[in-house]
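thought: fold this chain, then report.
action: predict
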Amino acid sequence: MKKVSILLAEDDPNLGQLLKNYLTAKEFEVSLVTNGAQAMNIFRKEKYQLCLLDVMMPEMDGFTLAREIRAIDHHVPVIFLTAKNLKEDVIEGFKSGADDYLTKPFSMEELIYRIEAILRRSTKRASDSPAEMYTIGLFTFDVAKQILTFRDSSRKLTTKETELLELLCRHSNEVLERNFALKSIWIDDNYFNARSMDVYITKLRKYLSQDDKVEILNIHGKGYKLIC
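observation:
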């Protein structure tokens, strides 16, 4: 069975080597680099199934690196490893395309749990039968291709944007419970994941704003409602 390949970008050589050795012992195939520019160079050449990125790195920080990676591959999962845990940093991380956010120090067991949870979701998406098309006001939404189309213009969505918009479409004109959405997409309803979902809701509202008859309402204490 082919091993899962991970790109690990960590500028602390001791921590980087420790993580690489641990993940290798857990049967992952790991490429370790020590700065963002190296990570970008190797990502362009190789195919990875997951990226573990430190935030504070020389030459290119993790947030910038994640945006560069997302410009090439909308699907590859990204987990940030960082000592920064301010709300603003967490929000910036998710805006740049993160799937998860692990604050240092963390346990190796928690890291493996997060990696396995994300890979399970990726595997499920790959094995699911092609999803249907949705009509959202003047938009069409192709879930399988992750494309949102408005008249003659199309937008390629990220995996998280696709998953959240699909859930909203399934529950259109009714309440999508916040905790249900969190556990369906992010597995865990902790603070960091809740902030991530808020970021993605804001992005989807912006995309859908071209049709003034479509909106995503906040239902206080419950969740969201897609009106279309």
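thought: worth noting. The longest strand covers residues 5-9.
final: tokens above.
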